[in-house]
Structures are given as structure tokens and as C-alpha cells.
Specification:
Elements: E1 10-12, H1 14-26, H2 34-41, E2 54-56, H3 57-70, H4 76-82, H5 91-97, H6 102-113, E3 121-127, E4 130-136, H7 146-164, E5 170-174, H8 184-190, E6 194-195, E7 201-206, H9 219-240, H10 244-259, H11 264-271, H12 275-284, H13 289-307, H14 312-318, H15 324-335, H16 339-346
Parallel strand pairs: 5-6
Antiparallel strand pairs: 1-2, 3-4, 4-7, 5-7
Length: 355
């Protein structure tokens, strides 16, 4: 089957619902609602009530473009993100800010909400006291998504400021698209140096903000929202693949590796089946526990090397390897280089572009 091209990427219809609320709250186009604009570019707004609906990502970007032209606002994406407030905070946002800290929010929710953002690599890295939140899309698509990406990054900033109860925590901002003619609004809103034509859309800030207690933390709300997100993402995964059982096992493995407790009895109990049924279900979906563990270990190793300051030995232990040597051999099989070489390459300094 032919792989989908970047321009053909579809995302959950829930994303269009988020966009409609943001546009209506911002009031960017007089006399037109967010639903009007979505319908105008070809989005089936009546079908958005189906949680399994899909929307072409290019159409979401087109909504921003049409709105920007209609109201003659070349900084429309920034203004939509800036005006995001409590009235337009969505399910994912509430789940995020109900965590105790930003670091905990990203750790808990990154894998859970990934199905909502299949078009991008979303990362959080820390190096020498500096944290970088990244949202990287296909570079060929960047020119078509300027307003959408500016709205997203501005919205993330405003959400973080609300949760922290602090303003202007940024050190630098970067975007993948080309520099607009006028960046006065970028400078006003972000109050930090702004780069363009960057490899990724990024918010750069002092790493200490990751551990600051959030003023919006709510453990009870957090538990309720997580159940909704688990159900939603599982249903989306189930709609795209018959391998629902193995998907759930992968999710459990990702959680278990972080907690350091993995065993067949524990996993089978969490899945509500016997150990024998557990293994047979995986076999019926063409996989095994060993294969799933290898895949999750590989993914987590990349994340931990990139986004944490854990030593290689600590990462090996976190992933259940008996020794650093065993981890290094496995990582070389997965990536073709040693974990030390991979981390060194990630941390090579980059030359900052001039504004």
C-alpha cells in the first residue's frame, strides 16, 4: 500500500473541534463562526461529533489561512493562541495543567496523546539547565502551516504561563517556516529572541520551570481526565488497526518501564486475562511480549537519551537491562551506534541564527 504523503496526513476530528472553539473565542472573523470557516474549506463539520472521525491536516491549516485573509491579520495564528483562555481549554489541556509539574505532565501524557498529533515529532529535552519543547513537522509542509503552528506554540506558552502563574518564562522561540515581513507581534507576545527557518518549532526556557509546582494541579481531576483520554486514544487506535490488544500492552509496558516493575503475571492481570490467554492474544496479532518489549525499550531509550540527564547506567537499569554492556549491545542493534555516541550527537551545539 502506498504510504500517505505529508499533504495527505489526516488527524482526529477532535482537533477540528479544538480549532472551532479557539477561533470563536478569539473572534477573529466578524460575522463568521469557526464552524463556518471549517465548512468553507471543505471540512465535514457535521461528522465531527464522531470521535473516530478524521480530518486532513492541510484543511486545518487552510482554515487559518482563510481567516487571516478575511480579517487582514498577518499575525492571526499568534492572536488566536494569545487569546486562548479558560473558556477554550480542551480535554488535553486540562489533563496537562492538572499535573503537579510541567515535567510530570509531559512524562505522563506524551505517549497518551501522540495519536492526536500523528503529523509531528513532539519532544521535551533538557541540557545544561535549558529545556526545549519541540514540535517538528515535515519541513516541506512548514510553509503551509505557518499560522497553525504559530497558534499552537503561542497556545502552549499561554497554557504554561497560566499553570505556572508566571509570565514570560522563555529564553528563545523558533519556527520552521520562513520569517514573515513583520515580526513585531512575535517579539511582543514571546518577549524573547525569535528564529525562523529552524529545523523544529521550539519554545526554549530555563529547565527549573519544569519542576515548579503548578497552581492548577488537581489530582482528582487528573484521574478522571486520564480515563477519558485512555478511552479516546484506545478507540482511535482500534479504528486504525485490528491489533488493539497489543496496542494496550505496549502502553502498559511504557508505563511499567518507568515504574521499574515488569512481569508477565503483572501485565496479564492488568489486561484482565490469564497468562496463557495473554500470550495467545499477542500471537493472534502477529507479535509477542518479547517483541513488544524490544520495541518499547528502543523507543524509551531514544527518549531518555534525548530528554533526560540520567546516566547511561541509570537508563540501562530503567529499561530492565542487567548491565550497561547489555544495553549498549542492544542499542547498537537498534540504531547502529552506541548510546554514548547517540547522546553526544544529540548534544552537539547548534549555531543560533540571527533574527
Amino acid at each position: 500500500m502506498r504510504a500517505a504523503q505529508p499533504s495527505e496526513v489526516t488527524v482526529p476530528g477532535l482537533r477540528a473541534q479544538f480549532l472551532i472553539r479557539e477561533l470563536d473565542a478569539a473572534g477573529v472573523v466578524v460575522g463568521q463562526t469557526g464552524r463556518d470557516l471549517c465548512r468553507e474549506v471543505g471540512i465535514d463539520v457535521d461528522g465531527l461529533a464522531d470521535p473516530l472521525s478524521r480530518v486532513p491536516l492541510r484543511l486545518l491549516a487552510k482554515v487559518y489561512e482563510v481567516a487571516a485573509e478575511r480579517c487582514a491579520d498577518d499575525a492571526l495564528g499568534l492572536h488566536v493562541g494569545e487569546r486562548s483562555g479558560p473558556g477554550v481549554v480542551d480535554l488535553v489541556d486540562y489533563a496537562f495543567i492538572s499535573r503537579p509539574t510541567l515535567a510530570k505532565a509531559f512524562e505522563d501524557l506524551h505517549a497518551l496523546v501522540a495519536p492526536l498529533y500523528p503529523e509531528a515529532e513532539v519532544t521535551l529535552s533538557v541540557n545544561d539547565g535549558v529545556a526545549v519543547f519541540g514540535y517538528r513537522i515535515d519541513e516541506a509542509e512548514a510553509p503551509h502551516h505557518r499560522h497553525r503552528c504559530e497558534a499552537l506554540m503561542t497556545g502552549v506558552l499561554k497554557l504554561a504561563e497560566r499553570a505556572l502563574g508566571a509570565r514570560n518564562p522563555l529564553l528563545r522561540v523558533a519556527f520552521q517556516h520562513a520569517r514573515p515581513a513583520d515580526i513585531a507581534e512575535h517579539r511582543r507576545i514571546f518577549a524573547a529572541p525569535v528564529d525562523f527557518d529552524w529545523p523544529s518549532n521550539e519554545l526554549v526556557f530555563a529547565a527549573h520551570w519544569l519542576g515548579v509546582p503548578l497552581t492548577t494541579a488537581d489530582a482528582n481531576l487528573c484521574a478522571v481526565l486520564d480515563r477519558h483520554l485512555l478511552d479516546l486514544t484506545a478507540r482511535m487506535a482500534g479504528s486504525e488497526s485490528p491489533a488493539r490488544f497489543s496496542y494496550d500492552v505496549r502502553r502498559l509496558l511504557a508505563q511499567a518501564f518507568r515504574q521499574g516493575t515488569i512481569s508477565l503475571p503483572m501485565l496479564a492481570k492488568r489486561m484482565g486475562v490469564s497468562e496463557r490467554t495473554f500470550q495467545r492474544r499477542l500471537e493472534s496479532e502477529g507479535t509477542s511480549l518479547q517483541e513488544l518489549m524490544g520495541g518499547v525499550r528502543s523507543e524509551l531509550s531514544l527518549s531518555l537519551l534525548r530528554d533526560s540527564d540520567l546516566s547511561l547506567g541509570e537508563i540501562a537499569g530503567r529499561l530492565g537491562f542487567a548491565s550497561l554492556g547489555a544495553f549498549s549491545r542492544a542499542f547498537r542493534r537498534w540504531q547502529g551506534v552506541s548510546p554514548a555516541e547517540h547522546r553526544k550527537a544529540l548534544r552537539e551545539p547548534r549555531i543560533t541564527k540571527e533574527q
